[in-house]
Amino acid sequence: MPQPIVETAYGRLQGITAHGVRAFKGIPYASPPVGDLRFRAPAAPKPWDGVRDASHFGPFCPQPGGGAGGVFGEADGGAGMSEDCLYLNVWTPEDTGDGALPVMVWIHGGAFETGSGSIPAYDGTALAARGKVVVVTLNYRLGPLGFLQLHSLHEDFAPNAGLLDQLAALRWVQGNIAAFGGDPESVTVFGESAGSMSIAALLAMPGAKGLFARAIMESGASQALSAEQARAICAGLLEELGLPPQEAGRLRAMPAAELIEAGERMKRRMGGMGMPFQPFIDPATLPVPPIEAVRCGAAAGIPLLIGTNRDEGALFFRPDSPSVPDEVIASAMELLSGDHRVKPFISRYASDFEGRAELMTDLYFWRGALEFAMGQSSHAPVWMYRFDWTLPSHPLLRKAVHAAEIPFVFGTLPFLQQAGLQIPPAGFALSEQMQEAWIAFAHGCPPGDPGEWPVYESGERATMIFGDHSLMVKDPDADKRLVLGI
């Protein structure tokens, strides 16, 4: 059976076909950001002659841990880890029909330090086949290579390089996705954790205007360091490396592994709980904190589907977690969120691991999602969800932890089965329900029947609770919400 070939603006690609879906992997959307291009804005990819093999993923970006994918596995290891990592992957139905299909572009999480678009749980086959959509996953520069504020030292360094990578990938989609049967005017960005926080930034970035029509944010909202914080982190990393600021140019010649390890040492000195590498406020790329930008209408007209998992923090605080003093957890929450309204709430939560987990869920994930939803609701329709599904027999999934919804959205629960988990039939039914909601939204429709899932507004605060028996709830945990001042 001949394998599919498509013509892009940079050359021809040959992918593979399986399960009624054509997959094209390891597509360069920018030139390798190596050598003199390290710390610069992404440059356009170079064209190639002949037909490029697109049957395997490209390398994933340098990161601690060698490419671990967190809860649901590791990146495809065939290509390994390399600074030459700006690749994306496309899944498209073999039969695209008569018209162009909606496009769903996934931005992975990993605290802006780990992850890739080639983690098995992000495989786009099931979603593309079920939803008649084109699915795209991508890599972007991480850690100090993607989010170190060097621009203040010399204009030769690009600010927020990791976000600029995401913009470059979205521009590639605009210029090339029609060749795969996709509609560049019907692009939905969706992402989880740092991917969702990236989308919050994209909604606020002037450079992202017109690159997507809808957004889905899973377990992550407004997130950005102040310019002052970003400069301080840069100074800390240079100190860790023994470099004076005037010699920052030497960073371009250092092995990537040395930069990553220095970042890890600095993070440990900071207590290990913060995110030193993340988007930061910068006049040219991200001039206003995302929450302020959306409140002022920066993303007017872009519908939003947003939500959290009921027990987000239980991924980070477990029975064997070391005890964390109040002042340390307060400092960590402030550093993570940039929010200084943390200390008054800490005494309301138990000091054991379960209390710390609940505090992180409420103050970092849930409150941020509610604030972002309300900020956007004045400018476009917003739908809110909460993911409650659990697997009581599993030591981790006995709670609805951070990232647990991802295989339900992608339809990759069989991957969990291969890892030994026994998923009951109700779990597969829930996955179908969530996929249908995400797919409907990507097609430009409400994610559910308006009578069953109304838009999120300040009065009723309608929230779809996804679980074994999903239902719509008005203003869940209202008492707690009021205490948090939302």
Automatic annotation (TrEMBL):
Residues annotated as the enzyme's active site: S193, E312, H402
Transmembrane segments: none
InterPro entries: AB_hydrolase_fold (IPR029058), AChE-related_enzymes (IPR050654), CarbesteraseB (IPR002018), Carboxylesterase_B_AS (IPR019826), Carboxylesterase_B_CS (IPR019819), Cholinesterase (IPR000997)
EC number, as in UniProt: 3.1.1.-
Keyword set includes Repeat: no
Species assigned in the record: Paenibacillus stellifer
Protein name: Carboxylic ester hydrolase
Keyword Nuclease tagged: no
